[in-house]
Each structure stands twice: as C-alpha cells, then as structure tokens.
Amino acid sequence: MTVELALGTYRCRDVAAAVRMAAAQGAAWVDTAPNYAGGRAEALLSTALAEWPALKVSTKVGYIPAGAMHDGVRAGALSAEEAERGHSLSSAYIAWQVARSRHALGRAPDLVFLHNPEHGLADADLGDRLYQAFATLEAACDQHGIPGYGISTWTGFARKTFDLPALLETATRVGGRQHRFRAVQLPVSVVHLAPIAQALDGYGVLVDAQEAGIQVFASAPLHGGEVPDMIHPDLAALIWPGAGTAQAALAVAASAPGVNRVLLSTNNTEHWSQAAAAVGRPPLSPDVLRRVVDVLGT
Question: Whose C-alpha in 22, 157, 197, 276 is 20 to 30 A from the C-alpha of 78?
C-alpha cells in the first residue's frame, strides 16, 4: 500500500503559500476546516486550489468559526445556545456549513469530515446525532457533488466513544450499501501509539478500516512539533539508522497498518522534502514497530 504525505493546514502560518509549496512538491491532498486560520483557511485555500485544480481537498464540519456564529443564527442554521457552545452536529448547521465551505473553497470538497463528533455530547445522545448527521451528509453529497464523508476525531476511537464497525452500520442504515462514508482521521504518532499497537495484534480502528476499504488520515504525526524532542537519538537509530528524529517519527506513522495519508503542517520546502522521503520509504517492519511500542508504551 502506498502512503501519501498530505498537507494539513491546522498549524500553517500562511495557508495559501503552504498549499502552493506542497502542490509544487507533488502533494495530491490538502486537509482543512472552516475554523482553521481564524476562520479564514478555506477562503485562503481557494486561490491556490484554482491554480492546482487536480489537488484534492477535505474539510470539516462541527466546530463553528467565530465569524460564522452570527451569520448561522441569523440564517436559522444555529440556535443561540449552539453558537455559544461553538460546536454543532445539527442537520441545519451541517447543511448550511457544507454549502458555505463549498462557496469559500470555490469548488466542492472531495471529503467532508464530522469534526470531533464526541465533543460536548453524552454517549447516549451520540448515536442518534450521528445518524442524523450522516443523513445530512449523504444529502449534501448529492446536492453538491461531494464524493464522500467521514469522521475526524481526536479521542473518539481511543476512548471507545464509537468504533468503525458501528459507524459503518449507521452509514449503511442511512445510505444503504452505496453509502458515501469513506474515511477516518485520527492521531497516529509515537505519542499516540495505541492504534499501531492494536493493529499489530490484529484489531482496532486501523485493522477495521483496512478490512472495510476505508481511507485513514493520520493526523498530528509530530504532535504539534513536540515529537522530535521526545525521541532519543538511539531510538531514532533503531527506527531508521541515519535518520533525524522527525523523519524517524514520520516513518512510524507512515508504517502503521491501514494508514493511507500522513498529514503534515508546514510552509518549509526543506521540511516537506524530508518528510516526503520518510513517508515514501518502504514501511518499517512489524518487529521494529513492536520495539517502538515496547520502548515508548501506549
């Protein structure tokens, strides 16, 4: 399986410049959200996307950008309480925000992720809310020509708030066997090793995704830039002799079974090139991954 390095825009200081740099270096995918870059990420992306029409883009819905709160309430897409909370999975808000994102990007996104759906909801409420959200996203796919949708989560799989088989069962109830649930996004790194450890033992979200043909986006592979300082050079040498600590960490994320794309936020061409070399190399063996898990734990 070929793993791609994709641009994540969460921490990009200059979103448009980062997209142009990554696209010029061969990136095929950029991931964003309407609340990134102070609520301006999608608009900043639009000119770069127009210059690189083959570039695929995923965005998200859930968190409410500060600049959209008043507009959403005025449009009837948000209640005052939802706007105050800053996050919503209501059908009205999802439909409104997806249309807003399409307009801001200047084109239909290739994927729409529900952004941290575990946020602010009791587990008992989440099943019904996800069913309604999936139904709205299926309709948005039809209306806007969006190929698919998925879940982007920080803790949902780790805390067992939901699992992939249950999400796929919900998608099937909504859309039948032709549903458009296509992808999951979750942290996979030397800080978040549990998905890798589980996959090495034959279970967990990465194995479930591989078996179901669901794309996996590995987010935060360098944990906001903190990972290089957390890896001892001896561990880096065990992972990849001669590599730097950042490259070694990226190789771990890219070698996780089932991962299709590793998201990196950078404006720096040299950093991108080094990361692309780490992601594009042959995957680490299961034995090496097990030793990393043994050293660092989960």
Answer: 157
Residues composing the chain:
298
CA dihedral (72, 106, 213, 22) in degrees, to 10, reads -120
Question: CA 213, CA 205: separation in Å to the nearest integer?
Answer: 12
Q: Coil, helix or strand for 257? A: coil
4-296 topology per CATH: TIM Barrel (3.20.20)
**Given this model, what pLDDT does residue 124 score?**
64
The Cα–Cα gap between 138 and 146 comes to 9
Q: What is the pLDDT of residues 171-205, one digit of tens each?
A: 999 999 999 999 999 999 999 999 999 999 999 99
CA–CA gap between residue 58 and residue 102 (Å, rounded): 11
- The phi-psi region of residue 51 (left if phi > 0; otherwise alpha if psi is between -120 and 50; otherwise beta) is alpha
Residue 43 contacts by C-beta under 8 Å, 6 or more apart in sequence?
A: 104
Q: What is the dihedral of CA 237, 238, 241, 244, to 10 degrees?
A: -40
Domain ranges of the chain: 4-296
